[in-house]
Every structure is written in structure tokens, then in C-alpha cells.
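Course assignment 3, question 2. Fill in each field.
Student: A.L.
Task: Predict the tertiary structure for the chain below.
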Amino acid sequence: LSLSLSAQPSLLNALCCDGPVWGVLGGVLVVVLFPCFNPSLLGCLTTPQARRELRRLKEEARRKHAVAVIWAYWLGLKVRREYRKFFRANAGRKIYEFTMQRIMQKYFLDLKKTMPSMSPIDKSWPARPYLFLEDTHEELRRIFHLWRCKKYRSQFTEQKKAIFEEKLEASEMFKDRKALYPSSVSQPFKGDYLEISKNPKYQKLGSLVEEKIILADTVNKVNRANGKGAPRLFLLTKNSLILADQKSGQIKSNVPLDDIGSVSVSSQSDGFFALRLKEGSAAAAKGDFLLSSERLIEIVTKLHRTAASTAGRSQIRVDITDEFLVQFKQDKVCVKFVPGGPRNGNSATCKRKNNRLLEVSVPSP
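Answer field:
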């Protein structure tokens, strides 16, 4: 191994001792041999210990360099994050966010000023100002309608809730199926139109009815023989249906609700309805009842609702058809509804054509 010792004064001082001198110079293992040194000892300088030491020193140098690089990048990242808001590249996003925030603020303020009324039937709604707000605008309309409906319902008493439940049931049965239904929507369901308990004229009749009267009204009972109508008092209780004479108040028929199988009405604007009794029941001996009333929607709704409110009782079916059969004692008679001109004012008229046909002429609207 040759080495220029004149260039290394510090190394010359180290040569004053006997034997070899070795060390690391510039990352290179340096060994200096003296004449008195035994050449046989040269093999110890390439031992695994020396190679491990060299690897350790190189690894340490690489780690220090890696730490310095990582630390420099981390400091740079912190500085860029801190000062990014001042860079021009971030200005577009800031302007966009501010603009959108201002548009939404103006949208909600304008919507507050133009809100529709609190009536659930009010279908008005402010126009959408921007196309991208289409979904939001419709969702707000739906939420507002549900909220005002809830506020409206919260004002109801239990009695008023029952009235609206009856109106809902009437809508489910007759809407788009019975021409008379639209005219009944605005009319409240009062129930007791005769005021049986207060009217002295019906005091005797009221004493004969032990149950609470749900509905009391005047109806026309169609005569089985000629189709002409006779006025009757129509009383509905929880368990029975009563027909009484209008003048004397005498009870003519008392039909348990369990004996009523179905109610048949036409699809036209007349007030005729047939109470069809179950075969074999005690009330069916005289046959079915064909009645007419201007309050047909309320009568049928309350009858159907009362029968369904008692557990274990079969519901009364409501059939809507312009032609059906009724049982008059031993004979089955077909009731047929036909359109016709105005007769007897604007009310429908019933006429018996033969032993098997009753024709109801309904005036055209």
C-alpha cells in the first residue's frame, strides 16, 4: 500500500510507534506498515470486523442524509400550507364559495318573504330562481307542506278529528266513483240533523232508543209496489238502524247492523241507496230497503264506519253500480239508473216499469 506521507503531517506523527497504524481517511480504510511490522499480520486488516465497521459508517451517513431530506420536505410542506391562502391559485375557490354562499342567502331570504299561506289546500309556491336549485326547491316545498299539515292537525279537537276521519273515509269510497261526491266535500258531517234529544216532537221516539244516536235524518223510502217515496226518520245507533214514521214517530223497522250485508248505490248524481240484508236474517223477511237522501254520502259513510268500529262484526260492503238487484219479499227486482232530463225539479225520480224492473231517471248535470 503506497501513500504520500508528506501530505499528511498528522499521520507521520502516528508512525512513531512500532507496528502498523490503521484508520479511516475520507471514508477509506488506511493501513500503514513499518519495517519492524510482521507482514504475516496483514490478513487481520481484512477481517469481517473491519467490513462491518465500514458498512456501519456508510449506513449512518445515509441515515443522516435521509433525515435531512425528510426534514427539509416537511418544513417546506408546513410553509406551503400556511401561506397557500395567500397564493393566487386559491383565489378562484374562495370567490366561488363566497358567491354560492351569497346566492343561497338571498334565495332563503326571498323565499321567506314570499311563503304561501298556512292553509293545507293552498297549492301556490314561489318560482325557482336558479336551475341548479331545482331539487332543493321541490324538497323545501314538500317539507313545508308536511309541516303546515301537522300544524293544522294539531289544532283539532277529538270531535273534529273524527269528522275529518269520516271525510277521509268518504273520499276513499266515493272519490272519482260517485258523481254526487264532489258536492258533499264542502258540507260538514253533522250527524244528528233532527236533534232528537232537544226536539219535543220526537221526545217519545228518543225515549224508545236506548243507545246513543250517531245519525238522525229524514229519508224517502221507496214503495215496493209503485216506486213512490214516503218520508221516514232514519236513525243510526251503534248496533242498529231504525226507520220511523215522520209524523207520529212510531218505529216501523229496527234492523240490527249485523243483518246488513251490503249497500248499493249508483255512480251518478242521485241520492238512492239500497240496504241489502243478509239472507236468512230476521230482518230479511220483509226484504231489502230502497231509500233516497240528499245526504247519501254521509249516511253510507257513517253506516260503514259504525259497522267496522265493532270488533268481530263483518264490514258492510259498498257496491257502486248503475244496475243491481234488490229482494222485495219473494221477488227480486232490478233497479236500473238511466240518464234523463230534469223532472220534479233537479231530483231523480223512480218508477216501476214492471214486476222485475225499477227505473231511476237521473237528471243530466
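Instructor remarks: Confidence is low (pLDDT under 50) at residues 1-19, 41-45. The longest strand covers residues 331-340.
Grade: pending
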